[in-house]
Structures are given as structure tokens and as C-alpha cells.
Please model this.
Amino acid sequence: MKNRKTPHFSSKQGHNIAPFNLELSEARAVASIRKLGPISRTDIADITGYSRSKITSVVNQLTRAGILEEIGDGESNGGRRPRVLNFKPDFGYIVGVDMGATSLDIALANFNGQIIERQSMVIDVRDGPDMVLGLIRNLVLEKLAVRAIPAEKVLAFGIGVPGPVEFSTGLLIAPPIMPGWEAYPIRAFIKESFPCAVVIVDNDVNMMALGELHAGAGINQDHFIFVKVGTGIGCGIVCKGEIHRGSNGCAGDIGHVCADQKGPICHCGNIGCLEAIAAGPPIAARAMEAARKNQSAILAKYMEMQGNKLTALDVGRAASQGDPVANEIIRDSGRIIGEVLAGLVNFFNPSLILIGGGVSNIGHQFLASIRRGVLHRSLPLSTRHLRIDTSPMGADAGIIGAITLAMEHVFVAVNNGEPS
Amino acid sequence: MKNRKTPHFSSKQGHNIAPFNLELSEARAVASIRKLGPISRTDIADITGYSRSKITSVVNQLTRAGILEEIGDGESNGGRRPRVLNFKPDFGYIVGVDMGATSLDIALANFNGQIIERQSMVIDVRDGPDMVLGLIRNLVLEKLAVRAIPAEKVLAFGIGVPGPVEFSTGLLIAPPIMPGWEAYPIRAFIKESFPCAVVIVDNDVNMMALGELHAGAGINQDHFIFVKVGTGIGCGIVCKGEIHRGSNGCAGDIGHVCADQKGPICHCGNIGCLEAIAAGPPIAARAMEAARKNQSAILAKYMEMQGNKLTALDVGRAASQGDPVANEIIRDSGRIIGEVLAGLVNFFNPSLILIGGGVSNIGHQFLASIRRGVLHRSLPLSTRHLRIDTSPMGADAGIIGAITLAMEHVFVAVNNGEPS
Model:
């Protein structure tokens, strides 16, 4: 047995500051409960490969530190019923934030991952980081005050943002729809009010993919893609049960894949980018053109009602009323997205593609056309077991993903020594 | 301490049949030496997270079984110099095979992974599995006989084949250039003559990517793509330091990604597939057309010399002599490959793309055009640290990959219980 220092999470003076160092054996025990929920010491030993006696000592240590607790008896295999372990709910709290261009979702979860407070509201991300992050801070502090939880009990803060994030630093890199956010120190801002929290910032689509992986259609799916279709188009990639961020942390940025060599010029300067043809704004633009040319009475009526403007959702409403022009616009968009996804299916061979984001609810023609586009251009072997569906979690995916990701960073295995 | 059965690799009667079961702790010790080369017990304990005493017992067990041996003293940190452990070279032997459409490379390696015999020859894979596999068997048996190694000492056999493989079964699925090989029981054929070997069959490009990962430009690259350009176009994907095979084992099949919606019809039935435009045969076809139209004297001369035929390598030779038509054909092919790779770069965000296969040596314009194509259509963040190069290992990549992959399957951790 080697001597071990008392880990600093068992300190009694002042508050504990995440992330906490764990020995590799402790980290493996924690990860097994995080993954499988409440389990017995024997289960932990089986999963981690450590001896029963080693796990008993690891669990004792984690229980003494207030991280784990026994929560009752599990299933018996004939003998005495084993005691089942879980996280102690009030060891600390986790905040999950899903920030959209025009929406904000916030949730507060206990250390078991159960959401105990939740709120949604309309915002404008272009108001800039001081205003938006200030709002988030105030909302969380209010919720904590109501429950008499000190801010120092928040151990992790996960924030999904609608722009490209350099994951290692938590900084936004040239976000196209977030003026003023480039390289803004989001982590430092949050840590000012929540000094004990580890703060994790990631792209919103990665958070959504994580949410589906942890609690939605992605459970037990090793390789899947979550595609968000909204103002832009991006995807979160799950590979071997983990988010794949790539070598610079910007994997999944499929909005600027070439979908048509003869297509329109994109705001990025290239020709025929996927999101310049098939995302919400081009769908709306095509519908407004049709309305102006009197090709669709329904679209023209909506446009008049809404001050000479249409959104992609208006096109969906028109399609649901049987408007052929609206249906054609939606079918074209879905087909083009599907054809680009076909190339990614051949390359990555996922078992599941989930379609989410605001435009994903534009009507059943949209999903059907994506499916046809994928099947048309993918290889038979790669689509043999491929499922393509709309995201079942909807708006919850991002927030649950943010909580899940933040939780994973509360503890650090000292053998890996990964700084956060 | 829990009781453990004597593992069957320590049996003294008869021969040992791979794969061998190892406890998780043993498997982790073996993997750490496989990854880092000869290291001390202290290093193994640090890497695996087990106590020094646990590792001492694990190493004793593996040494008694003849798997490991002490090979001398390592670096001292002030005290006694630690004994360094490595695999015992004659514990068993590994065969690596790289099968191409028209070429065969075979190597025999000892248990340390050192190649002790190697042979290359011209074959025709269309002669069918009985003939080609029979040849492989005879060649290996000859090499073993010369060294007085019994066939039962071959513990693993890795075979790379030029077609889509269902990795879990080792069967070829609808291989376009391998008539007669569909679902042929390659493993059973090999096991008849090498009854103690675990037999691993994989796509040749995956093997090449593995070879580069283990011993070439891919060392320490977490995320990279090996693109083989030959008769067809395919790629091997390394994700988090491991081959990514996808949910059906067919990831990397990029030859049929749409490169031009107005392009030629591919043998797969779709329009504008990458390999129908940019692989070896369309390069040769375009050159032959130019020769017939008298657009290039050099190409016309080569064509006459070679019985009215040209290959992609002839186009490379003409280009190296300054023929503008040949150079244009090569540039177009590279550009189109680069533009398709750009989409994959945006999606996967690799740090490295290696170009291999017969056509990769067609001239420096080819690589330059691929690079331009990628940079033209990729996002700045995803190409910030991206390197694009021709494979430095050349023909060795496939064979070293086959040996590496086969070795990884000699032992199975019983906690994972993965059948092979």
C-alpha cells in the first residue's frame, strides 16, 4: 500500500474548489457510478478490475469525503443483499446553460444530476457577453438563494454557446452570430460569482449530442451524429461513446461543406455552402421570393400579416396547410442536407443521425427528404442499420448535455493530470 | 486477494491457442509495454494506476508464463537502477499480410514486433481465395521451416485486403475488385494450417493507417486520415489514437462521395462519385483520350509503346517531362480529391492527412493540388494546424499495420470479454 495524501476535497476549512484530484482507482469508481447509476461495491470491482478490498477502501474514502453515500439495498444473488452506492445529492450543485442566438435555457441540478430548477427565456445574444452572462449569473444566484444554497456549493458550470469554441481554453473563435464574444473570458466571468466551480464552455451542438448520448436517443449508440438545423447548420459527433472534437476542437462544422458547386455565395465567401442553401434563412428567402411573385397565396398572406417578412417556421405552417410551393422548398432543403450527410455516412458510418434545431420541426416532409437524400447517395453497407430521426429530447438535449459535461469535469484523475 | 485460476497460456501440455485470456490488470500491463516499449515495474504501476505490489505480482505471473522477460537495467532516478521488462521474442510469432489487387507483401515478426522475414511479389487477387491464401500459407510455412519454428508458434495473423470487410466476422462484403472472395472464410482457411493463431482480417487502408499510427507519421497524432488513391479511393480513419471503423465496420469508404453532380456515371450506379473522377482509371482514361486526339505527343508516344494503353503512372511520367496535358489531368484529380477532403476536414478536424496508394507517387503537382483543394474549401480554424503529406512509410505501412493489429488481439482482457 502506498501512502496517500488526504485529498483536498476533504478539507474542513473554507470551501472546496473544483476540480478535485482523485486517484485513478477513485476516478474509475466515480465514473462507473456516473455511467451506470447506483451500483454495489461488487459491481464497481467487476467494472473497474480492482479487487473487492481495494474498492472497499476507495468507497470508504469517497464516502468519508461526502461524495458518495449508501442509498439502500440492491438485488441479492442469493446471499446478503448488497448495499448500493450513489452520489450524495448535496455534495455540490451543477449549473447547465443552453444559450441560443435568441433563447436562453438554464437549469440547476444536484450532484446526482437531477434538475431541481429550470427556466427558459428570450434573449438576444448580440447584447454581448456582459449583459447575457450577467443575466445568467443573476438568475442562478436567485435560484440558489431561494433554496439557501451558497454560491460556493456550485461545483460545475456547463455552458453551450452558438458558435465555434476552442474547447481547451473555453474561448469563442470568430463566432459569426455573436458580435463582441470573440475570445471573451467567459470562464473568468462565471468564476467571479461562483469561485468553487469548474466552468466548461462548448459549442451548443456538442452539448445537444451529449444530452442525447446521456439521456436520449443516443444511449448505447457508440457512433452517432446530431445535426442542428437553424440559422446555420452544424453537427455534434459522438465517437466511441464520447464527443469527438477533433484536433482543434472544431469538428462538426458542416455548414460550409460544398453542397452545390453552382450554388449561391455564402457569407464565408465560398460558393454553394450547405447552410447558404438549406438552413432557415435561405428557406425563408425562397418563400419570400415565391410570395412576392404570387406563386403561393398562403405564403403571400403570412408575409403580409407579418410585416413583409417570413421565417422558416412560416414555411412549415404553409406546408402543413398543403401549400405545394412551401412543400417543395422544404423538400429541396431536406434533400440537399441529406446528400451532404450521405458523404459523412460513407466516411463515418454512424448508426444514428438525429436532426434537431429550430428548423427540424418544419414538417414531416423535411425528415423524409433528408432520409431520401442520405439513402440515395450512401453505400448499402453503411445504411444497413442506419436510423435517421428528429431529436426526441428537443430543447432538453442542450441543457442535459451541459450538465453532463460539467459533471464530468468536477473530478480529475491525477494519473491523467488533464488541466481543465 | 481473490483466488485466480492458472491461465491457460501457462499450460505445459501441447500448444497454446490464442487469444489468451488475461485479467484486466495483466492486460493493462501488457498494453502499457506494447505502447511504450521496454519499461520498469514502477513505470507500469504509474501508467496503469495499480499499486507497485500488485504490478509486481502481475509481472511475475506474466514472466512465469513466458510472455515477459527482464532485459536489463533502465535509467536510475538516484537509487538502484530499475529492471526493464519487455516481451519475450520467442513467446510466439506474428504474420502480417498486405494484399493488393496485384501485389502481395508478407512479413514474419517475433513477439517484440521485429520483422525477421519479409517478401513481396506480384499476384492477381482475381485468382480467387483458394489460390491466393494457399500461396500465403505456403510462403509462411517455408519461412517458419527455415528457422525451425513450428506452425503452432504463430499466435496471430493479420491480413489487409483491398475490399470492404465486416470486421467482427472477418468477411469481405461485396468486394468490387475481388471476385470469388465475397464472404469467403479467410479465418478458417488460415487456422487450418496455423491452429494456434488468432486471425484478423481488415481493409487494407485501415491497416495502412494503423502502420502510420504505430511507426510512421501518425505517431502521437490523435486524429488523422490515411487516404489511399489507387484503382479506387478509400481512407483509414484514426480517432483518439485508434482505428475508427464505424457502426458496421465500413467507415472511410469515401470513393463514392459525390464530387460533381454533373459528373460521369460510376460503376456503383450513382453520378459523379469521387473515384469515378479522380482515381487511377479515370486519370488513365483522360490521358488516353488526349493521346488519341493528339493533344499530347508524349502521352501518344507512351500509348503507342504500351500496346494502346496508358496507366496513371504513365501520366505521372509524362508530367515529370513537362507535358502540360498530363500536368493538367493530375492537377484536376488532386483538386477534386482535395475539395472532397475539405468537407471531411470541416467534419472531422484531423491534424494530419496522409496520401498513399499507387497514384500518390504520380508527381508533386498531385499533392500540391490536393493541398490547394483542401485549403480552398476548409474553415480557417480547422486547417490552422493541418498537415497534408504523402505517406512516408510507403509499402511498409500496410504490413506493419497488419502486424500491429494482429498483436493487439493475442490477448483478451476477461473483463471486456470481447470475442475475436
